[in-house]
Amino acid sequence: MARMEALRVRFPLLVPFRAAHGTTVERDVILVAAHGDGAVGWGECPTLTTAGYVGETTDDAWRWFVSGGPAPLMARGAVLDARRDLRLRLAGTPAVPATAPPALPLRAVVGRPPDLDALLAAVEREVVAGVTHVKLKIEPGWDVGPVAAVRGAWPTLDVAVDANGAYGVDDLAPFLALGDAGVTYIEQPAPPGSWPALAARWPAAAPPVALDESIRGSADLDRAGVLGGVRYLNLKPARVGGVEQAQVVAAAAVERGLEVFVGGMLESGVGRATALGLAAVVAADRPTDLGPSERYVVDDITPAIRWAGLGRVEVPRGPGIGVAPRPDRLAATVVDRVEVDRVEVER
Ligand SMILES: [Mg+2]
Q1: CA-only gyration radius of the chain, Å
Q2: How far is it, in rounded angstroms, from Cα 281 to Cα 286?
Q3: What distance in angstroms lies between residue 265's CA and the mean position of ligand 1's atoms?
Q4: Of 214, 150, 220, nearest to 178 (Cα)?
Q5: Where do runs of H (alpha helix) occur along 129-215?
Q6: Are the beta carbons of 164 and 140 closer than 8 angstroms?
Q7: Distance CA 142, CA 342 (A)
Q8: Cα 75 from Cα 40, distance rounded (Å)
Q9: d(CA 2, CA 34)
Q10: What pairing do the DSSP bridges indicate for beta strands 133-137 and 158-162?
């Protein structure tokens, strides 16, 4: 087996990113390097610092890399992704086949800003960059008004919203109003535990639903596929345990009649390239949530993921995921490292 190493890295975001589950100022993630035959494969565990998104935190993942035990899903996914990247690099094979598109349209995700002026400025920046699809983070008290303001300013802009599970099961009024405002979909209206109760009452006049936090694997789809207006799956490879598992989940979602798009978790270039590669294979005809590096950081750990024409993001090419950390930038961001050769990941 390849020698493996986990590197805990920290880097500041360009601007704090606020969603209903919390505000992220600095990213604290784990990169996995799989060494073998003179090559290095890379995977990323882009867990958040707090448990508000899907429960697994960077501290949880790091504890596993250091001490072993039952593998948390996202940590395990980073190991599998690093091994996959190493295999591809050793074979000289890109993760993205030559037939896949070189760039994907972006649905720019706009975090909750401090006020309406800041929201309009953030959306305008995306429109100027040629973006035609946005997704606004919403929560109770910051939903219908801000969305209507954006729709009013740019009537042809495709606007989706993401609640990150911030709503209870009784208040249907905001969802109906968001439908009236012409929202394309509402992502994760209620938390995974209470979504089925809300789904059972989901009004036909409300926008279709995209699920994110609710889906950690194919088994979760059996419930989601038939309930409450669910039409989309926001697939994030890290959330379901790596790219190969994500491909299985994508196929299962399509089988159940869902449309799949690929989202992100404020990854470094390693995770971003990994997810863009997945998007190019399983969801090339839909806008991805994964933006270029310059939207998130001043100086990415890998060479920057770039715009590729108006409103489009490049899909990195080259053996494996197509990018690797730059040694100087990696050295500047690593805060801890541990050899993980002894950690077995059950397949
Ligand atoms: Mg989401």
Answers
A1: 19
A2: 11
A3: 9
A4: 150
A5: 144-153, 173-180, 195-199
A6: no
A7: 48
A8: 18
A9: 6
A10: parallel
Residue range 3-93+325-339, CATH number: 3.30.390.10
Question: 159: CA distance to ligand 1 center in Å?
Answer: 14
- What's the gap in Å between 343 CA and the centre of ligand 1? 31
Q: What is the DSSP letter of 236?
A: -
Q: How many A from CA of 33 to the centre of ligand 1?
A: 27
Q: Residue for token digits 């086949």?
A: 97
Assigned CATH topology for domain 103-314? TIM Barrel (3.20.20)
Residue type, 230: V
| Domains of the chain by residue range | 3-93+325-339, 103-314
Ligand 1 centroid to Cα of residue 323, in Å, is 25
* Closest C-alpha among 310, 331, 241, 321 to residue 276: 321
How remote is the CA of residue 137 from the centroid of ligand 1, in Å? 8
Summarised one tens digit per residue, pLDDT across range 164-184 is: 999 999 989 999 999 999 999
Q: Please list the residues that pair with 42 across neighbouring strands.
A: 33
pLDDT, tens digit, for every residue of 19-73? 998 999 999 999 999 999 999 999 999 999 998 888 899 999 999 999 999 999 9
Output the six-digit token pair for 45: 């565990």
